[in-house]
Amino acid sequence: MSNDVSLSSIPKPEQQIALLYFNKEGYSKYCKDYKEYWEWVSNRNESRYENTKNHGKNYDAKNMMHTFRLLEMATEIATQKTINVKRPNRDFLLNIKKGKFEYQELLGLANDLQLKMEKAFEQSDLQDKPDREMINKLTFDIRNKFYNIKK
Question: 3-state DSSP call for residue 79?
């Protein structure tokens, strides 16, 4: 578990025959990454991992599907000021989840969607920060109404 090199003394009259360079920071990072990988392997969702292996594309298809869904929903928030939970392109999203696309193709499409989303927020008239006073009042009113109804 140690990240240090074990050294022993060399008598002064000995001639140097080698020089050892030890990148402790790099080695420590490698050890941390290695440990985290094997923790992930032991804790991963096996059925999800099997799905990744079965479609043979070497990417987490469920994660990729959610990437597209969230990018599209964010764009809709910027352009329509609404959240549409039901997705109009459900079949496309399910095909991503089934691994029907190549990774590079999806990466290109996701990058395009990200640029579209960023542009939509640049052009949006949504305020930059939430109205905390309004949110606090709304939260108070909702709780007040809820607890008064329950009595």
Answer: helix
33: left (phi over 0), alpha (psi -120 to 50) or beta: alpha
99: nearest Cα among 49, 150, 42, 59: 59
Domain ranges, residue 69: 13-126
Name every residue whose Cβ is closer than 8 Å to that of residue 6 and which is 6 or more positions away in sequence.
none
Number of domains in the chain: 1
CA dist 122 and 144 (Å) reads: 37
Supply angle C-alpha 52, 54, 56, rounded to 5: 75
Q: What is the pLDDT of residues 38-48, one digit of tens each?
A: 887 788 777 77
Half-sphere exposure of 39 (CA within 13 A, CB side): 6
Q: Is residue 23 part of a domain?
A: yes
pTM over 0.70: no
Per-residue pLDDT tens digits for 82-133: 999 999 999 999 999 999 999 999 999 999 999 999 999 999 999 989 999 9
| DSSP reduced 3-state for 73 | helix
DSSP state of 15: P
